[in-house]
Amino acid sequence: MNISGIEEQFIIWLQGGGQWLMGSMRFFSMLGDGPIYVLIAAFVYWCVDRRFGARVFLILMISAGVNALLKGAIHAPRPYWVNEKITGITKHASFGMPSGHSQSAASFVSAVAATVQGKWVYFSAAFFILVVGFSRIVMGVHYPSQVLVGFVVGLLVTFSFLKAENRVARLVNESPMGVQIGIVLCFSALILGLGVLLFTFLSHFRLPSSWVENAPDSFTAQNVATPISLTSVISTVGVLCGFGLGLVLEKQKGGHSTEGSWRQKSIRMLVGSAVLFGLWKLPGLYHPEGHMAAHIYLFLGAALPGFWISGPAPLLFEFLERQWD
Asked: What are the structural domain ranges in the chain?
C-alpha cells in the first residue's frame, strides 16, 4: 500500500467516529473560511491598529495567491475524488494540494501571533491551526499530507513577509504616489502573470474519469473541460491589488485613526461590513460573455472590496465621525 492509500485508510477510520465528530469538524472548518479572516482583518485595520490590520490582510491575500498557483501547478486530487469509501462532507472542484484552509489558518493566525506575542497567544494559535487542518482531514476533503504542506507554505509566507516588511514599507513610503501605484500594479501583475503561464502550460490537462465518477456533485461541465482555471488567481490578485491601491489613497489623505469609542467602532463595522457584503455580491449580478470580458469583470469585482476596506471605508468613517462630533 502506498502513502496515499495509508492516508485514505486513516481518513476512513476517522470518518467512522460518528456524527458528533463530523458536526464539530464542520464548525472548525467554517472558522477557517477566507471571508471570516477578511472581516477580522478589516476590523483590526478599521478599529485596532492600521499597520497591524494591513499586515495580516496582505499576508492572507498573498498566501491565497500562492495557494491558487500551487493547486494548479500540482493539480492533486482530493481524497473523496479517488476513494469512493471516503465521504466529502463539502464539495469542491478545486484541487487539493496544498490545503487552502490549512494554509490560510497558518499564515493568518501566525501573523497575528507574531504581532501580539505571548505564551498563551502562541499556544492558542497553534491549537487553532491544528484543529482547522484536522477538520479538513476528517471531512474527507484533504489528505493529511495536503494539510501538512498547507501549514508549511502558510508559515513560510508569513515568515517571508515579516522579514521583508520593514524594508519594503520604507521603500514604498519614501516613493511618490505614482511609484507606489506602480509597485502595487507590478506585484499584482507578477502573480497574475504566473497564473497565465501556469494556465498556458497545463491547458492540456484533463481530469481522470475516475475522479469525476467518484465525485459527480463536485464538477460542472466547465470544470471537466478546463480543470486548470485562472478564476482563483484573478479574484485573489484583484482583492490584493484593490487593497494596495486603497492603501496608497488612504496614505495620501494622511492616514486614519483607529481610536474611538466602542459605539464608533461598532458603527464602523456595521457600515463597513454592509458595504463590503454588497460589493462581494455585486459580481454575481452580471455575467459578461467572452473569456476576456469575464476575466476583467472578475478582477474588477474582486478589486472593489479590497479597495473599499483600505481606502474609502476609513475615509468615510472619519468624515461621518467629524459630522457627528
From this structure: 3-324
Classify each residue of 73-93 as buried b or exposed e, where b means 16 or more C-beta atoms within 10 Å of its C-beta: bebbbbbbbbbeebebbeebb
Amino acid at 232: S
The amino acid occupying position 117 is Q
Q: List Cβ neighbours of 127 (8 Å cut-off, separation of 6 or more).
A: none
Contact 54, 62 (CB under 8 A): no
CA distance 100 to 154: 9
Helix, strand, or coil (residue 135): helix
Q: Which residues of 17-26 are buried (b: 16+ CB within 10 A; e: fewer)?
A: eeeeebeebe
DSSP annotation of 97 reads S
Tell me how far apart the alpha carbons of residues 273 and 71 are, in angstroms, rounded to a whole number: 30
Residues, the chain, total? 325
Give the span between the Cα atoms of 166 and 8, in whole angstroms. Answer: 44
- Spell out the alpha helix ranges (H) of the chain: 3-15, 19-31, 34-43, 50-74, 79-82, 100-116, 119-138, 144-173, 177-201, 209-214, 221-225, 231-252, 262-281, 291-310, 312-324
Residue 89's pLDDT band (cuts 50, 70, 90): confident
Q: DSSP states of 12-43 as a string?
A: HHHHTT-HHHHHHHHHHHHHT-HHHHHHHHHH
Q: Exposure string (b/e) for 165-187, b if CB count within 10 Å is 16 or more?
A: eeeeeeebeeeeeeebeebbeeb
Q: What is the pLDDT of residues 23-46, one digit of tens each?
A: 778 888 888 788 899 999 999 999
d(CA 76, CA 70): 10
**What single-letter DSSP state applies at residue 92?**
-
For residue 103, the tally of other CB atoms under 10 A from its CB is: 30
- Locate cell 471537466: which residue? 224
Mean pLDDT, residues 284-305? 81
